[in-house]
Amino acid sequence: MHKNYLFVFLILIVSLLFSQELAAQKGRPNTRKSGKSGFTDPFLQTQWWLGFKFGGNLSKVSPGDRYTAFSSADGFSPEIYDKEYESFNKLGALSGVDITFYHKGFSISFQPNYRRQRFVYSNDFQWLDTENPNNILTLNYAQDHQLDYLELPLLLKYDILQSKIRPFVQAGFFYATLVNANKAVTITGDDLASGFQNPFESDEIILGASDLFINSSVGVLGGVGGSYDVGNIRISLDISYRFGLNNITDVKNRFTENRLAGIGDALDDLKMQNISLNLSVLFPMRFLIASSYKAN
Prior knowledge:
Layout: H1 2-26, E1 46-63, E2 84-86, E3 91-103, E4 106-110, E5 113-128, E6 136-159, E7 165-191, E8 199-201, E9 205-208, E10 216-230, E11 233-244, H2 258-261, E12 270-284
Antiparallel strand pairs: 1-3, 1-12, 2-5, 3-4, 3-5, 4-6, 5-6, 6-7, 7-8, 7-9, 7-10, 10-11, 11-12
């Protein structure tokens, strides 16, 4: 359902921009008759670009206050229950559109996209038999989180060189709304209670986790990249870093999932960071009809 809404949203944007630009082209006089070159005519120095954006990303989360469903009866520090977080090790993806307004080296770019981000942490627990210290059960819970967002980033870009190959820097902010979230839990362990080592691994358990996270994520981003013009088509490659500013955990629902509470799991306060590599294919919105012109 959410993916259908995104598709309709993108189609409406594309249709609106095409209708506006085609109307503008019909009323535009032939600039070639004016004697101005593409480097001096202000009209040629301003351009709308529209295209598609794809990429992959890696994420990490920074925990704030930490929580667990267990407490020690022997007076041990709560830190023994702290989760171990893995950083930038699970590949996510994105797809969307790139709508860019360019003027004399500066660009404002709106890039709505559907983004999937992943992060992993693990919990380790050990149960000891107070009467027989050889009876030990060790368990590890590996928890892989998959969060899908509809993201709305707005970027300011600057082309360092005005040439066919254009390196650029960019910075901006984003707002994202959560579409779906899942958690996959894998349990491994060693059972020494039988007198010898008996390792085991359970089947992966997949749980819906949308209620564990709030609906919105906000943050800032920056990056570098470069573009290359192939005829009227612009190919752009960039690497960007996103820094989330808000806690994405829903604190009201931290302990509401019974299946997670039974394994001692409760989400910490989390802020997400993300690094992504993105490819854009952009088409000029002006001079699509007049073949004698090339986009500046």
